[in-house]
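Lecture 7 notes: from sequence to structure.

We start with a single chain of 113 residues. Read the sequence below before looking at the structure.
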Amino acid sequence: MAKALLECTQGYAEDPRAILSSALFDVDAGGGMVLVKDIEFHSLCEHHVLPFTGKAHVAYIPRGRVVGLSKIARAVDALAKRLQVQERLTRQLAEAVAEAVGTADVAVMTEAT
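Now the structure, written as tokens:
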């Protein structure tokens, strides 16, 4: 039980901003919106310590740099592997992406059950 709980909460040892910042690439302005959708995640409700699963969808308009798409999925996983609520997960992901790519034009939607 303890080993499983440690694995399910290993996201506390990971920094989603560092994950996203590890794969930034310069791009020309005006490239359009970047959208990554259907990123599956598994988390534990912080109130009940019961599992919930869902999908995250992340969109942003680059302002000179983009992040590697696989890093967005890794950031979702890092945030989901914490005791969490869907609303905070959504906000934390949006803030991490905004900071990494240097834009306020970020939209994140999560759907979970």
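The mean pLDDT is 94. Keep this in mind for problem set 3.
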